[in-house]
């Protein structure tokens, strides 16, 4: 069993659209949407939810005004500046500033502070037309996205073992935050989707540095490469310098947009389109490399980057 995580340095690169397309050609696979803060793979896979679970994220503290003497000890010790006097002279805790460390609760001499866990999060096991999907939904501003990613990846692994799946395909979050770290740690390979814009390239570089810490086989796709041909050439040269295999340069195509609006992958919408053929080729290259356990750098050839 091999686990492949698809990531991007920023949002809007087309990562989830390509993940859904790969899902439509991958066989014997379980899928996991690790972008728990803004999950959207389900919009294309249209899952039938089979199981629902609650996920408790961070703690939030509140002050009981009836017990509080406004001594200020909690405010003096709060390292997140979450406690302050309101207009009435009463100490209150800003829930958006509070990091849930619970120190104030422990040091309050009047025991006027209590904490409770947030339960505004869920994760699901679902069935889709391509196979089983594990995904989640976090409430706005909720914490511990990395822990939730670990939870759903564990479940996806369990399902894959029970169904004898050959692959787990993760739709990872954009960026380099906690959820991304939880998505790539322990995975067998990473597919990086890059957009040829200044921010897309810079964010991809940061992500490549992060992936390098984990020493994971890394592949890349430049999506919408024809938006900026000069920058695409610079990205190609950079990938060569980092010994990262460029599997495809996919052009912008209105058919991709149309397929998304109809709730279909590009493979389903037009299986003979050039992009559909490229995506099949990308998946076959990844499969071949993972099955032979050969260093993926051999995949970069002159024909790949012309």
Distinctive features:
two-stranded antiparallel ribbon, 306 residues, single chain, nine-stranded mixed sheet, 2 domains, alpha/beta
Q: From the alpha carbons, calculate the radius of gyration and give it in angstroms.
A: 23 Å
Q: Sheet bearing the most strands, described?
A: 9 strands, mixed
Question: CATH class of the largest domain, please?
Answer: Alpha Beta
Helix content: 25-40%
The span between the termini is 33 Å
The coarse silhouette is elongated
How is the CATH topology of the largest domain named?
Rossmann fold
Number of strands: 13
Order of helices and strands: EHEHEEHEEHEEEHEHEHEHEHHHH
Average pLDDT for all residues: 92
How many distinct helices?
A: 12
Overall number of structural domains: 2
Architecture overview:
This protein has 306 residues and is α/β, with parallel strands linked by helices. It has 2 domains: 2-55 and 120-305, Rossmann fold (3-Layer(aba) Sandwich), CATH 3.40.50.300; 59-117, Alpha-Beta Plaits (2-Layer Sandwich). 38% of the residues lie in helices and 25% in strands. It is built from 12 helices and 13 strands. The protein has helices spanning 15-25, 42-45, 73-77, 103-107, 145-163, 178-184, 198-214, 229-241, 254-261, 266-269, 274-292, 302-305, and strands at 2-8, 29-33, 48-54, 59-63, 83-85, 91-93, 113-117, 121-128, 131-138, 167-174, 189-194, 217-223, 245-250. The protein has a 9-stranded mixed beta sheet, with helices on both faces. A hairpin with a 2-residue loop joins strand 8 and strand 9 (131-138). It is elongated and about 70 Å long. The relative contact order is 0.19.
């Amino acid at each position: 069993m091999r686990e492949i995580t698809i990531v991007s340095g920023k949002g809007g690169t087309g990562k989830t659209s390509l993940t859904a397309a790969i899902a439509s050609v991958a066989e014997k696979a379980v899928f996991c949407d690790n972008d728990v803060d803004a999950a959207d793979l389900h919009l294309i896979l249209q899952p039938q939810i089979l199981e629902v679970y609650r996920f408790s994220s961070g703690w939030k503290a509140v002050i009981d005004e009836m017990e509080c003497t406004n001594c200020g000890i909690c405010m003096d010790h709060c390292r997140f500046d979450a406690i302050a006097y309101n207009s009435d002279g009463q100490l209150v805790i800003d829930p958006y500033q509070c990091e849930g460390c619970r120190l104030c609760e422990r040091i309050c001499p009047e025991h006027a502070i209590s904490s409770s866990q947030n339960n505004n999060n869920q994760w699901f096991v679902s069935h889709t037309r391509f196979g089983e999907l594990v995904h989640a939904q976090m409430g706005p501003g909720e914490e511990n996205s990395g822990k939730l990613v670990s939870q759903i990846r564990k479940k996806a692994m369990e399902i894959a073992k029970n169904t004898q799946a050959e692959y787990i395909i993760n739709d990872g979050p954009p960026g380099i935050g906690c959820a991304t770290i939880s998505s790539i740690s322990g995975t067998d390979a990473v597919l990086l989707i890059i957009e040829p814009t200044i921010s897309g390239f810079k964010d991809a570089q940061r992500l490549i540095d992060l992936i390098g810490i984990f020493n994971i086989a890394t592949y890349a796709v430049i999506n919408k490469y024809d938006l900026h041909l000069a920058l695409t050439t610079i990205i190609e040269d950079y990938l060569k310098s980092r010994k990262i295999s460029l599997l495809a340069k996919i052009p912008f195509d209105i058919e991709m947009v149309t397929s998304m609006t109809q709730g279909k992958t590009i493979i389903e919408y037009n299986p003979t389109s050039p992009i559909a053929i490229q995506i099949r080729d990308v998946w076959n290259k990844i499969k071949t490399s993972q099955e032979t356990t050969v260093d993926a750098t051999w995949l970069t050839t002159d024909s790949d980057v012309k």
